[in-house]
Amino acid sequence: MDNNEAYSVLRFPEENNSVKIFNRISDITVRVVEQEATVPEFMDGEIHFFGECKGRSWVFETVNYDGQGLDLVKDAIRWYAEYIGMPEMQIRNVEFDL
Fold it and tell me: Minimal CA–CA distance to 98: which of 79, 68, 75?
């Protein structure tokens, strides 16, 4: 199965047009916030990543994370970067780079 079959980008107009990456196989969900558009409100217990590319910045936050594995979160963020045409996006969290 190719990654395009596993991932979906979900848009939520009722949540200020927020975007979430969803993997239907692993059930991983990652909220995407473009930093210029919104100041993110972080949720306790979630994992946070930061992306930068071409002068733009994003925050990625897991949704209802229950320890499925950082590799799955990393794969979702990498897939999204390619999906939006920015495969060279630098992705970091406080402790390490992806």
Answer: 75
User: Cβ-count burial of 84 within 10 angstroms (0-12 exposed, 13-18 middle, 19+ buried)?
Assistant: middle
What is the model's pTM? 0.82
- Residues 6 or more apart in contact with residue 32 via CB below 8 angstroms: 18, 19, 20, 21, 58, 59, 60, 80
- pLDDT tens string 54-63: 999 899 999 9
Which tens digits make up the pLDDT trace of 56-83? 989 999 999 988 888 899 999 999 999 9
pLDDT-based confidence at 38, cuts 50/70/90?
A: low
Domain map of the chain by residue range?
3-92
CATH of domain 3-92: 3.30.200
The residue type found at 41 is E
CB 79 within 8 A of CB 92: no
